[in-house]
Each structure stands twice: as C-alpha cells, then as structure tokens.
Amino acid sequence: METEATTGADTGPNFWLLKAEPDSRIVKGKDVKFSVDDFEAVKTSPWEGVRNYEARNSMQKMKLGEKALFYHSNCKNPGIAAFAEILKEAYPDHTAWDSEHPYYDPKTKQDDPKWFMVDLKFVSRAQHFVPLALLRFITDSASDSPPAGLEYLGDAGVAAIKAMDLTTRGRLSVQPVSEAAWTAIQQLASTGGWDELDLNPKKKSPAKKSADTADRPARAAKTKAKAKKRKAKGSDSEDEDEDYQEEESDAEVISKTTSARRKRKAPDDYQELPPTRRRAKASSQE
DNA sequence: GCCAACGTTGGC
DNA sequence: GCCAACGTTGGC
C-alpha cells in the first residue's frame, strides 16, 4: 500500500530533490564525484549509495516520469544545477553488497535488500544555476513577497521556497519538493534576475569571530519548528522501516563509524558486553 | 578548515 | 524508552 504523497498531493505526481557532489572526494579509494557535467555526459544514472532511511523511503515512492531537481552539494557554490526525471523506479542497490564500493554495507543480504536506488534521467540544465544562497536569502527574509528582480515568483512562490526542506534539513540527500516549490525553482532557473542581490551579506568583522555564524541560532529555531511539525504528522524516516532498530545491534553498517564507537568509553566496571541482540542476530546466521 | 546540525548508537 | 555521546554531513 502506498503511503500518501509526502508533498501533500494525493493524486498528482510528486517532485523530488537529489543531491550529488560535484567535487572530487575520495571514499575508500574511489572518487564519489558526480557533477552536472558528469550527469549530462552520461544522460542516465543509477542513484546508488543512499544509506539513509528517510532518503531511501523517498526513493521508494518515486514513480516513473516524476521530476527531480539535481543539486550540487558539499561544494563551493551549492545549488540546483539541473532537472531530471525518474527513469526507473526503486530497485535494490547492489553496491551495498560490493565490498569495493564506497558505500558497501556488509550487513545487508541479497535476499533481503535494505537499500534501494532509482535510475535518473538527465533532462536539462538550469539555464541559471539556482544557488542555495539565493534560496536562503529568500527564506531568511522577513518579507512574504519576492525580493527586487524576482517579482515573477509571487508570494506563493516565496512561501513555497520558504517551506522547502532544503534550507532546514541540510543532511537529507533525497527529499520531496512541493509542486509549488518545483514551479518556483523552474521559474528561477529559466528567468534569473538576482544578479543585483547581495546573496552573501555581512562578511564577518575580524573582531567578531562568530559574526558569520550569528544567524545560526535563528536558523536552528526554524529547523526545530519544522522538525516538530514532521514529528506531529509522522515523519517517514522510520515507518516502513522494519529493520530500523534491529539493525543497529550489529552495527558494522558503516564500519568506520561503528568501530570507532565500539571503542568509545569503557567505564571502570566495563566487563565485556553481555551479548544481547547482537549475539542473537549473529547466531541466526547459518 | 571549522563547526552547527542531526541521525544513529547504545548505556542506562 | 530516554537521552548523551558520537561521527558525519555539508554550509560557510
């Protein structure tokens, strides 16, 4: 059974945002770089390596032909670089079983896949790259109306942008986008018009080291408010996720994390963990 | 390179 | 089941 659309639409298509890293970054000896240039060159790409439940759940809701925003993350100038669409609906992410792969997950079994991916088709570049800084500029503005030059967005477009997860949920790499936000982004990408805006106001004064982080508390408050809302209406980060709590016990999921954590803190009365679920799980293997 | 935010872990 | 601790994400 389908859960209803995360975006609130009950019948129409959903819209999505997926993040990729345009800059080289080496993980387990492999470069995980995937820029809009790479995407445009290959035209289609499996979206492998997602290892977050909420992101995965979103991917499992994606339907053939639904539209997505291609986002540049973890780079100098993050933002929306292209438009894409779903070419193939969710199927098991085989890279989880590939020990050579940067996102190898040794705990998942081929007969019980935990991670999924979709195939994405490149549609077009954003004629005007839509920088995160612009979306933040709009989101952080006290006004309900568009800034000068972007009147075409209308108040509705501004409201949609302000409601986007992108600005408040930085770590979510696959997220739903409302249709209104989709439209607003498309308008921005095709029209531009923010060259006159100072998207990076206030460089920190040398005296005040924390000047450029001064707005973070305000941001945090917004983030919290939204998180509360999600909780209230029931986030999908955990539902439909049978293994969510059980998996933790065996913990090699991301080995680096786990091994470090296992080492953490041995209180004086530390005796060697009484095996609990971990043992049960391990012995269930034949 | 720094560090706030946040998802996950795991002791209690 | 709560929540402190931890490591990672990702903007800056």
From TrEMBL:
Query: Could you name the Gene Ontology cellular component terms for this entry?
Result: nucleus
User: Region annotation Disordered: residue ranges?
Assistant: 194-286
Location of the EVE domain: 14-187
Question: Would you say which domain of life the source belongs to?
Answer: Eukaryota
- Keywords of the record: Nucleus
Matching SUPFAM superfamilies, A to Z? Answer: PUA domain-like (SSF88697)
Q: Where is the composition biased (Acidic residues)?
A: 237-251
Location of the protein in the cell: Nucleus
Annotated CDD domains: EVE
Which coarse location class describes where this protein primarily resides? nucleus
Stretches of Basic residues bias are at: 219-232, 276-286
Pfam families reported for this sequence: EVE
Task: Please list the residue ranges that the record marks as compositionally biased, kind Basic and acidic residues.
Answer: 209-218
- Name the record gives this protein: Autophagy-related protein
Question: Which species expresses this protein natively?
Answer: Favolaschia claudopus
